[in-house]
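Residues determine shape. Take a concrete instance:
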Amino acid sequence: LYKNFEQIRWLRMWKMQILDEDHLLIKYASEDVVTLRSYEPNSQHSFFVVYNMATTEVLGVYENTSEKLLNIFENFCDNFRNSGLNGESRYTSSPSNNVYANLIQQRFKQTIISAKNGGASEARKRVLAQLPISAQSYSPSPLLDLSLFSYDEKWVSVMERPKACGEHPIRFYGRECGLLKFKIYAGVQGRNPPPQARRLVAFTFHPTDPFAISVQRTNLEYVVNFHVRHDLRELP
């Protein structure tokens, strides 16, 4: 520890999340990272601290390349994502409760391991960059349940954050039958975006009902859509 004292001395508290009523997960990084002066802050060296607020004890310290912390995160992912849920709430599809979500994560790690300038350490760093997790950033919507539907996570995922907007509707297929079940259109149908336009879309799904809101940004223009279930039986 004393050999790295100067490095540890200049660490700053960057982010944190409440794990339960007694425990905090705190992320520490250098001042350049915390103040966003560093290029690609999530790729820089950082530390995670598990702190017990009741006993004022530090229960664990992990580097952002820690294999042990990665194993804890992957096997108990719901404890990080859904720390405030009661027993009646739905859990999001995660690597620890869904075989398809776990497969997606393993493929992501393998892509980083095989990439140029990648490797196992870099893969662990990229996965652990998700921590600490912001409250309500993962959707429990049944429409995004990977055990019920398959879809391209390039366009939509259980993590509610802006993604690139494609030219075609997002297709959802039944997991067991492989048949197309429904499609979601983002933006305005029938309108072609301007050339070279950068389009992003963010979805917010209702936690239980077939309803979603999308906000698409094309350059400086915003389009808001409400997506509801289309039932042919309700048409006149």
Summary: Residues 43 and 126 are 7 Å apart (CA to CA). The mean pLDDT is 84. The longest strand covers residues 11-18. Helices lie at 5-9, 31-34, 67-75, 77-81, 99-114, 120-128.
